[in-house]
Amino acid sequence: MSPAELPTAEVRDLPKDDVTLLDVREDDEWAAGHAPGAKHIPLGELPTRVNELAELPDDQPLYVICRSGGRSARAAAWLNATGWDAVNVAGGMGSWANEGRPMTTDLPNATPEVL
């Protein structure tokens, strides 16, 4: 699948509730700030951990997100090639934060941020 054929969605066009989100950023990025309810599998671990996606709802697209959209595009292309209905989130967590979407952090006493 070429980049032009990759399904892509803008954050503003995502459902406000009940979006199935896969975050492929690294552990430190995830810990600093992520969308509540997102599934976290770093891009480099995705091929060996893809079976974990079976626990996610399969009646809607799997939206894939990273910091700015590059890693998530690679992940979404790979997922689509292996039979998943994956959509790249354009602009990534940067756009997520700019749109005012909710974020949480794993760091004690910290304000969620996008690294």
Automatic annotation (TrEMBL):
PROSITE patterns with a match to the protein in the record: RHODANESE_3
Give start and end of each Rhodanese domain.
Answer: 15-105
Q: Does the keyword Transferase apply?
A: yes
Among SMART domains, the record links this protein to: RHOD
Q: Which GO terms describe its molecular function?
A: transferase activity
Alphabetically ordered keywords of this record: Transferase
The record's annotation in SUPFAM superfamilies points to: Rhodanese/Cell cycle control phosphatase (SSF52821)
Q: Which InterPro entries match?
A: GlpE_sulfurtransferase (IPR050229), Rhodanese-like_dom (IPR001763), Rhodanese-like_dom_sf (IPR036873)
Domain of life, per lineage: Bacteria
- Protein's name according to its UniProt entry: Rhodanese-related sulfurtransferase
